[in-house]
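INFO  loader      accepted 1 record
INFO  loader      residues=297
INFO  predictor   begin
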Amino acid sequence: MRQWMESHPRVVSVLLWLIAIVITGFYVLYENDPYDPLAGELALSDGEVVEYEFIRSRVLDEELAIGVDAPEGTTGYVEYWRVNSDDEPQVVDMEIQTVELESMGDTEEVELLAARLPGLSEMAGKYAYFVHLQYDGENYVIDDGAGEAIVSRYRGDMPMLTVVLPHVVTIMLSMLFGIRAALEALRPGGKPRWMMWAALITLLLGGFIFGPIMQKYAFGVYWAGIPLGWDLTDNKVTIELVLWLVAVFFNTGSRKDGPWARRTIVIAGLVTFIVYMIPHSLLGSGYDYTAGEALTE
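INFO  predictor   done
INFO  writer      dumping tokens
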């Protein structure tokens, strides 16, 4: 195998790029953010189905429309409260109304059984809610799929072309170059150093320039990780940065021919992969209504 790899360097290089692209593409397609829309179906007793898609990320002060596509005769209400507050749960009845659904930048107006919650003006303010339905004498509850309340978070408006898109592109390139560098470091005779530098540079751009700018627009702070807080997303990219800097250290000067040169690249690439498998915003910013201040978790 080693002999074949050494005698077919271009073929091996193409295969390793394909592997890195597939892994990165899989992440892009299946990455799970807890504030992505929550879509699903609820089976009713007579075989009818209720379809729903709840928005879980909303821009400040915008109403939160909570709607379901339910068979005729269905009634319901939404039980809701603000997260991290002393609020008693409130109830708003659902009625048939026109609701705007957004998907991939397109907006579609549909008739749904829906309720509207007033917008929140606090960055990272959150609503928690259950949807209660009644149909044919039976009661049903829609939750987050794990028996807990559904949570929707509010954020500031973010410029798509100048902030969000550059952040996403550079952070994905960092993952691609990081995985490819690790694969190259494992390859006999491989030359991973330029890929290591590419991973580091794109990480700095995506995680430490465009990322903080995007977070400032969304939640009012540039940085919520160590030493200022415990934001998981910020701390993940910090771990990545430290490991890639270690790799750079062992791949410069007289150390670049040492035993740890390739090992540190492999470790940094592996940890990069593991870090990106942790759902984005698994722990995230919130607003504490009892204290009147933002939270970083």
